[in-house]
Design goal:
Helix content: 40-55%
Number of helices: 17
Shape: globular
Length: 456
C-alpha cells in the first residue's frame, strides 16, 4: 500500500512539473513582443498592438529618452500614459541636450541599454543617427500621416523622402510686445511687417530708460535665412554656391546697424556682448518694449511671483526683410522629433505611444511653452495650460494668431560649422569693422569654403 501511494504521488509531481515548464516556455516566447530575436523586429511593424493569446500577464515596458527635465512635463505625460495603458508601461530617462548628453544617448543606442524611443532636437544629429542605423524607418506604419497631421514644415525631417521620427512641436521665432507701451504710442499689434516697420516701431517706443527692441545674436540671421529658405534648405543658389551675398542680406545688416548706431533703439552689439543682459528679464521689467525671441520666454512671462508685471504681453510674427515678400519662410519649424530605436523589442507599442503623445498626450508639456504641432491637438487646452494663472496679463488673440496660426514655418540645413563661423562676421559688421555690403560677401565666402570642403 505504501509503495502504491508513493507511486501515485510521484506521478502527480511529474505532471505538475511538466505543466509548469510548459507555461514557462509560453511566457518566454512572448517576451520579445514581436516574436523575433531580441532587439530586431522579425516582421513589418503593424499599426496596432494586439496581445498574443499566449502573452504574459506582465506589461510591456518602454523607455523614452528626452532632454526636458521630468518635472517640466515629461513625468506627468508618463504618469498619464501608464494610467491609461496598464499593458504598456513607460519610463522616462532624461539626457541633457548638449554635446555630452547627446554622446550619452548615442552610446546607449549602440549598446544594450534600454532605449525604445528618444527625442531629437537637431537635424544634423538626427541624420547622423539615421545613417548609423539607430532610427527606425517609419514608412511601414500606414495608419498615421505625418504630413497631414503636422503640415508642410514636417518635410524638413525627411531623409530620402522617409520619416525616421515624428516632429511633435513647433517653435516659431516671433516678437514679444509690451502692449501697454504700444497703446500709449497709438501703435497696433502688427500682423505682418518688414524690417522697416520694425525699425519704425522701435524708434517710436524707445525712451531714455527703455530700449525699443532687444534680441540675441541668433536673431540677426532670421530675416536673412527666411528670405533664402524657400529656394534651398542649404541656403544655396541653383548652381550650388552660397546665396548669402544678396540684397536681402545687405538690407538686414544695414537696418540693424542703423537701429544700433543711428536710432539708438537697439542695444549696440558690443555692449550686449560685454554686459550679457538677461533679455527675457529686461522685457518683463519693462526695460525693452519689444523682444525678438521664441516661446521659451513663457517661463519668464508666466513667472509673476518672481517677475511681477502690470502690462499686457502681445505677439507679432517675425519681421520679413520686406513686408511684401511672398516667398518668405518663418524661422522655427517643427521639432522635438521622436524616433524609435530599431533594436527595440516593442516597435508597435512605441508607435502607439508616439501617436497618442503627438495628438494630445503631450498636453502637460504645454505648461513649459512647448507648442504642439498636430492639427488634431486640443489647442484651447494647450493655451489654457500655457497661461494658467496669468491669462489676464496676455493679449491671447495675438498670441494664438502667431503661435497657432498658419504661418509657413521651416528650418535651414545650414551646417553647424558655417553657422558658428558666420557669427564672427556679424560681430565685425555690428562693431563697424565691415560694411553691410562687405558683411554679405564675407558670409557667402565662409559658406562657400565649407560647401567646397564638404563636397571633397
Amino acid at each position: 500500500m505504501r509503495k502504491r501511494k508513493r507511486l501515485v504521488a510521484g506521478l502527480v509531481w511529474i505532471v505538475a512539473v511538466s505543466l509548469m515548464l510548459a507555461g514557462c516556455g509560453g511566457n518566454s516566447n512572448s517576451n520579445n513582443g514581436n516574436g523575433g530575436a531580441a532587439g530586431t523586429p522579425s516582421s513589418t511593424p503593424s499599426s496596432s498592438v494586439e496581445p498574443s493569446p499566449t502573452a504574459s500577464a506582465d506589461p510591456i515596458k518602454l523607455t523614452l529618452w528626452g532632454g526636458v527635465p521630468p518635472e517640466s512635463g515629461p513625468q506627468e505625460v508618463v504618469d498619464n500614459w501608464n494610467k491609461e495603458n496598464p499593458d504598456i508601461q513607460l519610463e522616462y530617462v532624461r539626457f541633457v541636450n548638449d554635446d555630452a548628453g547627446n554622446l550619452k544617448l548615442d552610446t546607449a543606442l549602440m549598446s544594450s541599454q534600454p532605449v525604445d524611443m528618444y527625442v531629437g532636437y537637431d537635424y544634423s544629429l538626427y541624420e547622423k543617427r539615421i545613417k548609423a542605423g539607430n532610427a527606425l524607418d517609419l514608412s511601414a506604419f500606414t495608419d498615421y500621416s505625418v504630413n497631414d497631421k503636422m503640415g508642410e514644415g514636417a518635410a524638413f525631417w525627411t531623409v530620402d523622402d522617409k520619416y525616421y521620427g515624428v516632429p511633435t512641436t513647433k517653435g516659431p521665432s516671433f516678437v514679444w510686445l509690451n502692449k501697454d507701451m504700444l497703446d500709449e504710442k497709438g501703435l497696433e499689434v502688427p500682423t505682418e511687417w518688414g524690417l522697416d516697420e520694425l525699425r519704425d516701431y522701435a524708434a517710436k517706443l524707445k525712451d531714455d530708460n527703455v530700449w525699443g527692441l532687444a534680441q540675441s545674436d541668433y536673431y540677426f540671421n532670421v530675416p536673412i535665412n527666411g528670405s533664402m529658405r524657400k529656394q534651398s534648405l542649404q541656403l544655396t543658389n541653383p548652381d550650388g554656391t552660397s546665396a548669402f551675398d544678396n540684397p536681402f542680406t545687405v538690407k538686414t545688416l544695414q537696418v540693424y546697424s542703423d537701429m544700433m548706431f543711428t536710432d539708438k533703439s537697439l542695444m549696440p552689439h558690443t555692449e550686449q556682448i560685454t554686459s550679457k543682459p538677461a533679455l527675457d528679464q529686461m522685457f518683463v521689467k519693462g526695460e525693452t518694449a519689444m523682444l525678438f525671441s521664441t516661446n521659451q520666454v513663457f517661463r519668464t512671462t508666466n513667472n509673476l511671483a518672481e517677475f511681477p508685471r502690470t502690462f499686457k504681453v502681445a505677439a507679432a510674427p517675425a519681421p520679413k526683410v520686406e513686408k511684401d515678400q511672398t516667398d518668405y519662410i518663418y524661422a522655427g519649424g517643427l521639432g522635438d522629433v521622436i524616433s524609435i530605436n530599431p533594436r527595440s523589442k516593442h516597435p508597435e507599442a512605441a508607435w502607439k505611444f508616439i501617436q497618442w503623445y503627438a495628438d494630445g498626450g503631450m498636453l502637460p508639456m504645454s505648461a513649459g511653452g512647448r507648442v504642439p504641432a498636430s492639427k488634431d491637438f486640443p489647442i484651447d487646452e494647450a493655451v489654457a495650460l500655457m497661461f494658467k494663472g496669468a491669462e489676464d496679463t496676455y493679449d491671447l488673440e495675438s498670441i494664438k494668431r502667431v503661435i497657432f496660426g498658419n504661418l509657413p514655418l521651416g528650418l535651414s540645413r545650414l551646417d553647424r560649422k558655417t553657422g558658428s563661423e558666420q557669427q564672427a562676421v556679424y560681430d565685425n559688421v555690428f562693431s563697424g569693422k565691415l560694411t553691410p555690403e562687405e558683411g554679405a560677401k564675407e558670409l557667402a565666402r565662409v559658406h562657400n569654403k565649407n560647401l567646397q570642403e564638404s563636397s571633397k
